[in-house]
Design goal:
disordered C terminus, alpha+beta, binds zinc ion, 26 helices, 46 strands, 25% strand
């Protein structure tokens, strides 16, 4: 099935863009995860390639194999860079295998990819990736490698390491002639069925003899006859690496199916092969083998998963079992607690440090340095606040610390040195002799543990996952659904050079080392980038030099953009780092630099707490992405003292004064202005500021986007309250009434009950702009406010051009968002029937005057086919004129149209048949919708008469007696509804089989005879055309 999968055809490969040149896959945005604590790399599963991964890991952890492979240089293999050159001889498979091994050894990633290698096999599709048998793959891979190494110094690589010989002998009992046949092997296949383990299987194969006797005789070539003989097999040549395949998969001939042998099958960690060998007189070391890899199959015989237990012979990985890891962590935690407790007491800490200095005295600043190095704390940060300066502290304890005569150096007094030592030794006789010498470096402990457990170093390599296991875990794979499938032994005599131990770079050629170094640097860079990208926060720095304090808050003196500097910084950095960065950005900063949290409020920028604690991380002090910071001297901005904190937040308040009646003499008018007060301002002060000559002040608690509330009068006792405590927030309004207005107010109730008009708001949304910026504003109004005033105010609030007033109108917006008909400008809110708080759209187009009608119209009754259109007409136009205007607007022509009203279910209803009547006369109202329908209305005085056809129950042939039928029909005329210009009536006579046959238009004064004539005409048309 693999057939030529691994064959390298150089002519083919020279055109094949394998290897480096082909790597054009998009880079993942996230770099691959680094190796975990085992420091070994797994291999990604490319989809059913776990058997390949297990085998590749086994080859990698056969140091002799990988070193032999690495010893083949570019002069023999070519280079992958040349793989696209037409004449270059490039041996892709060994090159890709070299690179993969280098990656597995050196590239800091959790799992390597085998894509390039399998591509070098010509193995691209999933079909080819389907699981195969690992024994089969082993042979195919070896033969592929062998083939591709022909003509190089590595041509015998596989043979050198894996080739063994079995000899089969048959000895003739009569002439003692030995007939001999040799068999080469790269791996031994041994039975599992009916055998308890590897030794028994080998015994059966290479010790037991088979006899030819009785009926089953052997034909001896020498004797030339059938003779008794004995047959045996022996291992003639042992390879350095012995691969054993277990026959776990068998065929059940009775059931005619494959099955997996799950019985117990033991195999030793060490095995002496002497009993199975032909030559047995050599030294024991020649026969001793050690297990170093077990490929495990998990599952049934039609699929499953492979993983591999491998002994890391060179101890490249960090073999640290989880429980030991846990113990280490526990130890460390204990140490940390102890450390933390100790650290709380500076006397103990300093004594500890000085005790380690033996008899020496050290400079005081060096002591500070050692404190930082050993305990990770700085005196100034940790103790200074509580205990004062270090030197001072030392001097305050003369009974413990002794200064040099020049007071620059310090040491422990003699008796404390002794006390301290006996102290520490007394209390921990059992633990390490250096308990007080706290283990600063956990690596030390790791090394010690690793050394203690040397000789094990077994790992479970399961695709991407690598974890350490105990040697005795191997026994779990003796039997069951998950059990050993291939065993790899290495000759015990094979010793590894000491320089290879723990050195993954050992024997890797220079160019691969360089490639891996570069790749690691790149990885590190990407990880760092990714890391800081994940941890980067954007801060907006507002510089005090660009701000002015006025109207109760800070405002940029330039544009907002120019006053803000953006800074991206890692959230794990400290406030000190941030300060440093800001200093660097603002080269010319002088004096103190205070960083305060700032927040843009409706009134302007307001400052909150000052950032403090330079050693704290930005994350720790809660600086989030997008935070605003104010950079200043902490006192004033442009000479004005700035109050900070939530108690001094500025609040924007809408101040309304009831003004004189406006020009038109109609409606209530307000002057409106915005004032900023600190929320700590007393209401009394606010009152004095807004109404210096006295008067009444009322508040309305409905701020922006809040529900409308009633006006409330501030009472005398409220005057001591603050803006904040009475609930005045941004957008709230206060109303100042002069003394003469006070009659409007019923002060005793506290509510504005006696005020003539309800003061409230209308909301206006901007529909004039097409750029989607539909801002909306609130306009104060009473029910007597005139619409034109509201419009003017809205235009101002929305910051639109004043000229817009001449070409815009206000249109109420219905609950479902539809723009309703515009409100006449001279209407008051009351006349326009607007509810307070309702939403109006400011739209292009003139509002209709009070003598004009705003109408919607559609063409045809199908709303979907024709969009609704709008038109403004004088209410005195006739139906005909109106129709013409509408036709003109919708681009239609001709006179085959008429107008209808729309009925309650939004379908074409009653026709406006009096063409010359005015809209006013017909009671067409503002906002009505009319429909333009195709077809002419009957001229005045004409009737439209529906015609029905009576089918008699005994069917006469069509046309046979038409006249009779017509007569019959006419007799029943009075039974039918005759309606002028009506639609098809729904009336059907119950006793008769009636069919609607269309309608006839006829003058009201025409005779019945005329009608008959018309009908006969129709009837003839009917009988001539079946389709009617
Ligand atoms: Zn013989």
């Amino acid at each position: 099935m693999f057939g030529d999968l691994f064959e390298e055809d150089f002519s083919f490969i020279s055109n094949n863009h394998c290897g480096k040149g082909k790597k054009s896959k998009p880079r993942d945005s996230e770099p691959p995860a680094p190796r975990d604590f085992t420091r070994l790399s797994g291999i990604k599963n490319q989809g059913g390639t776990c058997y390949l991964n297990s085998l590749l890991q086994t080859l990698l952890f056969t140091p002799e194999f990988r070193e032999a492979l690495f010893s083949l240089g570019p002069e023999e293999l070519g280079t992958l860079d040349d793989s696209s050159k037409p004449d270059a001889k490039v041996r892709i498979i060994p090159l890709q295998l070299q690179r993969l091994f280098a990656q597995l050894l050196l590239l800091d990633q959790q799992a390597a990819s085998t894509t390039d290698l399998t591509e070098s096999f010509g193995w691209n599709s999933h079909e080819e990736m389907r699981q195969h048998d690992v024994q089969e793959l082993n042979r195919i891979l070896f033969s592929a490698l062998e083939t591709s190494l022909v003509g190089t110094s590595g041509h015998d690589l596989i043979n050198r390491l894996y080739h063994g010989i079995v000899v089969n002998q048959i000895v003739c009992k009569e002439c003692k002639n030995i007939s001999e046949r040799q068999e080469d092997f790269l791996d031994l296949t041994v039975a599992v069925k009916g055998v308890t383990g590897l030794e028994e299987a080998l015994w059966n194969m290479y010790v037991e003899e088979e006899y030819f006797e009785n009926e089953n005789l052997y034909r001896c070539g020498a004797c030339d006859k059938l003779v008794e003989a004995s047959k045996s097999a022996k291992l003639r040549k042992l390879p350095p690496f012995l691969t054993v395949s277990l026959l776990r998969f068998n065929f059940d001939f009775e059931k005619c199916e494959r099955y997996k042998e799950t019985s117990c099958y033991t195999f030793p960690i060490q095995i002496n092969l002497r009993p199975f060998c032909e030559q047995t007189e050599m030294d024991d070391s020649e026969y001793m083998y050690e297990l170093f890899s077990v490929i495990i199959h998990k599952g049934g015989c039609y699929g499953g998963h492979y993983h591999v237990y491998i002994r890391d012979v060179d101890e490249l990985g960090n073999w640290q079992l989880q429980e030991e890891e846990d113990r280490l962590i526990e130890d460390k935690a204990l140490r940390d607690i102890k450390n933390a407790k100790e650290i709380e007491n500076p006397l103990a800490v300093l004594k500890g440090i000085l005790a380690e200095e033996e008899s020496k005295q050290i400079p005081v600043d060096q002591l500070g340095q050692k404190l930082l190095e050993k305990k990770g704390v700085s005196w100034n940060k940790k103790y200074r606040k509580q205990y004062g300066a270090l030197r001072k502290y030392l001097q305050n304890h003369p009974q413990i610390f002794q200064f040099s005569p020049d007071e620059n150096k310090v040491g422990l007094k003699e008796k404390h040195k002794l006390l301290f030592k006996s102290d520490s030794q007394g209390q921990d006789l059992q633990s390490s002799p250096h308990k007080n010498d706290v283990q600063w470096n956990s690596e030390k402990t790791l090394t010690r543990l690793r050394d203690g457990s040397a000789g094990c170093h077994w790992f479970d390599l399961n695709d991407s996952k690598v974890q350490p296991i105990k040697e005795k875990d191997i026994e779990k794979q003796f039997q069951g659904k998950e059990s050993a499938y291939m065993l790899f032994y290495r000759k015990s005599e094979l010793k590894r050079p000491p320089e290879a131990r723990g050195n993954p770079r050992y024997q890797i050629p220079e160019h691969l080392l360089n490639e891996m170094n570069a790749a690691n640097t790149e990885l590190q860079k990407k990880r760092a980038e990714c890391d800081s990208a994940n941890n980067g926060i954007d801060l907006h720095l507002h510089l005090s030099s660009c701000y002015k304090f006025h109207n109760g808050a800070l405002h940029p003196s330039l544009t907002w953009k120019e006053s803000v500097v953006d800074l991206t910084i890692d959230r794990r950095k400290t406030l000190g780092d941030l300060r440093q960065s800001v200093f660097q950005m603002l080269e010319s900063w002088e004096g103190d630099m205070i960083l305060s949290i700032a927040k843009p409020l409706p009134a302007g920028l307001h400052l909150y707490q000052i950032l403090d604690g330079d050693e704290l991380t930005l994350d720790g002090i809660g600086l989030a992405d997008g935070a605003d910071l104010f950079v200043w001297n902490g006192k004033e901005v442009g000479g004005t003292k700035v109050m900070t904190g939530p108690d001094h937040e500025p609040v924007v308040i809408n101040v309304l004064h009831l003004a004189e009646y406006n020009e038109g003499g109609k409606g209530q008018h307000f002057t409106e202005s915005q004032h900023v007060f600190s929320c700590s301002t007393k209401v009394g002060d606010l009152h004095t500021a807004l109404a210096p000559s006295g008067g009444i002040i009322l508040k309305n608690g409905s701020g922006l986007d809040k529900e409308a509330k009633n006006w409330e009068v501030f009472r005398e006792e409220d005057m001591k309250e603050t803006v904040k405590s009475v609930g005045l927030t941004d957008g709230c309004s206060v109303l100042i009434l002069d003394s003469h207005d006070q009659s409007f107010v019923n002060v005793s109730s506290g509510n504005l009950t006696a005020f003539t008009y309800d003061i409230s708001w209308l909301q206006v949304k901007n529909f004039c702009r097409t750029d989607g910026d539909e801002k909306h504003v609130k306009i104060t109004a009473t029910i007597e406010t005139v619409m034109s005033d509201i419009k003017r105010k809205a235009i101002r609030e929305l910051q639109l051009e004043e000229e817009l007033a001449n070409d815009s109108c206000l249109r109420p917006i219905s609950g479902n968002g539809k723009l309703l008909s515009p409100v006449p400008e001279d209407y008051t809110v009351k006349e326009a029937e607007l509810k307070m708080g309702s939403l109006l759209g400011l739209c292009h187009g003139k509002a209709p005057a009070s003598t004009q009608l705003f109408l919607y119209f559609i063409v045809g009754s199908d709303q979907n086919a024709s969009p609704e259109m709008e038109i403004v007409v004088e209410e005195t136009v006739s139906v005909k004129e109106c129709l013409n205007l509408m036709l003109e607007k919708s681009g239609l022509s001709g006179d085959n149209w008429h107008l209808r009203r729309i009925d309650w279910c939004y379908e074409a209803g009653e026709a406006l048949s009096q063409e010359n009547a005015t809209l006013k006369e017909l009671n067409v109202c503002r906002g009505d919708t009319l429909v333009i329908m195709e077809g002419k209305l009957p001229p005045k005085g004409f009737l439209k008469i529906p015609i029905w056809w009576l089918k008699s129950s005994s069917h006469k042939k069509r046309g046979e007696n038409a006249q009779d039928q017509v007569n019959g029909m006419t007799c029943k005329m009075d039974a039918l509804q005759v309606s002028p210009s009506g639609d098809s009536p729904e009336y059907i006579h119950p006793d008769m089989d009636l069919c609607y046959a269309g309608s006839i238009e006829i003058a009201g004064e025409a005779s019945l005879e005329d009608l008959k004539m018309q009908y006969v005409l129709i009837w003839h048309l009917l009988i001539c055309h079946v389709q009617w």
